[in-house]
Write a structure and sequence with these properties.
Blueprint lengths: L1 H10 L10 H46 L21 H29 L3 H26 L11
Helix pairs in contact: 2-3, 3-4
Amino acid sequence: NDRLERRLSRTVPHPIRGCLTAGHCAALFARRRASNFLAMATSAKLIEILVMEGTALLLFGFAYAIGVKGKLFLIAGYNERTANLVHDKRGLARLVTRLCVLVGLASALMPLATSLWGDSPQSLAGWIGAYGGFIVGALLFTMLQARDYVSKGKPNA
């Protein structure tokens, strides 16, 4: 009788889960859960790569437009009214181009760094903090250095 029940339990699927036995049902559930987690992790990594590489491409585009093409109007605060305050336009363009390239490189390398060394939540938080700190530091340094290219005074209206 016990043998017949075991045989029937192996061949008759569970009405809700579609499993053959309790052990099979637990293994199937664990496999589905692992594959869902892997799919979520893969999609999260793909989103991270797309966002960070898109940001890097955008910043490299700005660096090219400002540094090579000389489109200074892309710099925040620079317009026809304030253009006469800038006494070294080429130097200001070089400075902003350097900022765009540095932040673009950091953005491009961030997915690689998080996949190689971001295996725990603490190290991942450390990398994200380092990335944010680098951007803030580079921006502050650029703002301080930009004062060398701008003369003090009021813009002509």
